[in-house]
Amino acid sequence: MDRIPILRMGPFLLVSIQVDMHDRLALALQDDLMNKIRATSARGVLIDISALDLVDSFIGRMIGNIAAMAHILDAETVVTGMRPAVAITLVELGLSLKGVRTALDVERGMALLRGSPAGREDGSGRPEK
Amino acid sequence: MAEPARSRLSDFVSRHERGILGDWMKHQSEALGRRRDLISDQELERQSATFLAGVQRALSSGGPDTSGDAWRDVKQYLAELSVARGRQGFTPAETATFVFSLKRPLFTRLRDELSGDGQALADELWRATTLLDGLGLHTVEVYQKGREEMISRQQEELLELSTPVVRLWENVLALPLIGTLDSARTQVVMESLLQQIVDTGAAVAIIDITGVPTVDTLVAQHLLKTVAAARLMGADCIISGIRPQIAQTIVHLGVDLGDVVTKSSLADALKIALARTGYAVTRLTAPEAEG
Fold first, then answer.
1. Fewer CB in a 10 Å sphere around the end CB: N or C, chain B?
2. Is residue A70 part of a domain?
3. Contact at CB, B232 and A90, closer than 8 angstroms
4. Mean pLDDT (whole number) for B60-82
């Protein structure tokens, strides 16, 4: 079975989703990611979904779940590169992913993680759940 | 009984065509009054002659029933005329008067012709009246339809025109909303804003609702959705231009704007946006001392 690679960058983990997410792939990613956070004591997780042009409610909730689980393991999650169509779909599905931090691209996402946990200096850090 | 009567009206019109046309032109000129500047005499005469000839042809081939095939050409001509007059600035009443003003010359001549036969005169008058009323109403209908098409076209154009996304500063976008927000418009607004966020890589988007006349629960819902979608993409949204009445309405309606940043003016919003993107605006010269 395919697996989505999880890359380590210093204290952070980088996941780039390049293929269509199906449910089993998403569950496998969730498992792998939690194990990896535990194994590397990662402080942050960055999930880049710029190549994802289709989401359903399951995948949407999954992203929220991963963020919540990572938070319990003391790692911040940043989702980057969400496409407009995907954002609209998630909002229409009622999944506004509260508690998940977002950034426009990987570079800004990394900057956000590095500034973590204090958030950005001007206090615009997203409210945590 | 019906057959000779039908041909009588047709014969009558063809015999008196020139006379009727002359009288009709005179009446129309009077009726038009101050609208004379909108159309020239030659143009009016040409239209009247074409119409009268058409009516005469239709009468002789199809009788006074305007729903028949014989009247298609006349109706077609009236439709063109009606649309043209609508563009020239005539009101629907003035446009319909073109047809209705034909009654007087026609009736006068009918009366002269059939003065000895009351029964026949009443019959012919009734026929002619029904005929002209039908044509007149057709004119109004076409005029109305033309107007409606124009309105719906303008609505579409408005939809496209009214959603500009402007770049205020590096990484700062503004979306000045003007007019009432409905679902269709919000969809367009949301899509164009999100697309611009991707294209410009903006970190902050300011939605300015100074030009939105009223905010009800639906509009607030739409705004919140747009903010949520922009947030998912990694851009912060600031809502600005909230007038005091709208602030009151929002609270009275019990709408929860949640953690959305709101500012009363676009200037305040821009200041926050600049601060967030790491800029500061300073005055280079000291303010001049007040008088």
1. C
2. yes
3. yes
4. 82
